[in-house]
Amino acid sequence: MDFEFELTLIPDNVEIVCGLDEAGRGPLAGPVYAGAVILPKGYIPEGLNDSKKLSEKKREALFDQITKNAVAWSYGIATPEEIDEINILNASMLAMKRAVEALALKPEFLLVDGNIARGFDQPALAVIKGDAKSPSIAAASIIAKVLRDRACLEMDREYPEYGFAGHKGYPTKAHFQAIEKHGVSPIHRKSFLKKRGLV
């Protein structure tokens, strides 16, 4: 992965570019997380890739590199209640907007993973499979994924009967069995469960 593709997307007069990605759109519980990263020009952490293609150990190592060396980084979340109220797509955009607003440095241009980029104060461009093409987006994907996974460990400590440390909230057989046995917790996304007849 290099900056060649990314640089073709950025207007010539732009200096401060922020990559954005989310983690946790598919799970049945917990917040959706978004990462925002402004990398130094020409800096690509060794081994950087789409967070889904990396081991947990490698993601944690890259998280440390990114947070240490980034010009600026931040994250944002949208709660299960917000997901239920405005749907997961809009909640993901909200989490990304919050991540941008939390940055110590205001970016001039945003590269957003996926096919939709809306609701931002800055010019933004959606990049399909951007976490495999753009270093800035890939770095943001690491931030979002690591923080979301850490949140799942907290969820597991609070609600150990659901097994969040293992399935991370995704719709696995074990997760459905736990819901059927223990009912719906306060951190479950009711709109997701309603579609499956569990609420």
Encode the helix/strand succession as letters: HEEHEHHEEHHHH
Overall shape = globular
- Provide the gyration radius in Å: 17 Å
Strand content: 15-25%
Structural class: alpha/beta
Name a few traits of the molecule.
alpha/beta, globular, 199 residues, five-stranded mixed sheet, 15% strand
Describe this structure in words.
- The chain has a 5-stranded mixed sheet with strand order 3-2-1-4-5.
- The longest helix has 24 residues, at 135-158.
- The mean pLDDT is 95.
- 43% of the residues lie in helices and 15% in strands.
- The chain is globular, with a radius of gyration of 17 Å.
- It starts with a helix and ends with a helix.
- The chain contains 8 helices and 5 strands.
- A hairpin with an 8-residue loop joins strand 1 (17-23) and strand 2.
- The chain has helices at 4-9, 56-69, 80-86, 88-101, 135-158, 164-167, 173-182, 190-195, and strands spanning 17-23, 32-38, 72-78, 109-113, 124-127.
- It is an alpha/beta fold.
Summarize the helices and strands and which ones pair or pack.
Elements lengths: L3 H6 L7 E7 L8 E7 L17 H14 L2 E7 L1 H7 L1 H14 L7 E5 L10 E4 L7 H24 L5 H4 L5 H10 L7 H6 L4
Parallel strand pairs: 1-4, 4-5
Antiparallel strand pairs: 1-2, 2-3
Helix pairs in contact: 2-5, 3-4
Summed up, what is this model?
The chain has helices spanning 4-9, 56-69, 80-86, 88-101, 135-158, 164-167, 173-182, 190-195, and strands at 17-23, 32-38, 72-78, 109-113, 124-127. By secondary structure, the chain is an alpha/beta fold.
